[in-house]
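ok so i was messing around last nite and threw this chain in just to see what happens. nothing serious, just curious
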Amino acid sequence: MATIALMTPENATGSVAEIYRQVEQKWGGIPMPLQLWGVSPFLLEGQMRTIGYLMQHPQLDVSMLNLLRYLVARGEECHFCIDFNQARLLDSGWTLEQIQGAQADLSITPLAEKQKVMLGLILKAVLHRKPLSAEDVAMAKGHGFSEQDLLEGVFAGILAQGVDRLIDSFSADAG
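result:
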């Protein structure tokens, strides 16, 4: 049970109610972590805007972003995020072996080579907390990514980590 009062769908008003309506149509319900975000309309609106932007990103593949969030969630032990992103990958045709094996070996995933390169760089920066070198940036550029793409990819990883920690901070990892 969450340690702060969540914004339930029944109590949501204004922009939060509208976002919930859209999410309910897409996902069939409002998960507890989203109800946590709903406590702050400002943060919920910003989170949804950011997610919307990233999911339409011209260079960052949706499956790569789902796998990124899955791998970050495994590191953070955020069970909702693990299950949610695993389900999204399974729905897009991945096998459980590919998803779970990606933690040890990205080469087994069905991602395009350039997406594997980007994911490896993001994980280096986010999970391993290693600075990206000039060679790393050059490698990303050599695979067709811009510096903006790289920055936004690393931000997506840091955002996933922050979301997991926020969920844990308020025990909102259920429902």
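not much to say yet. The radius of gyration is 17 Å.
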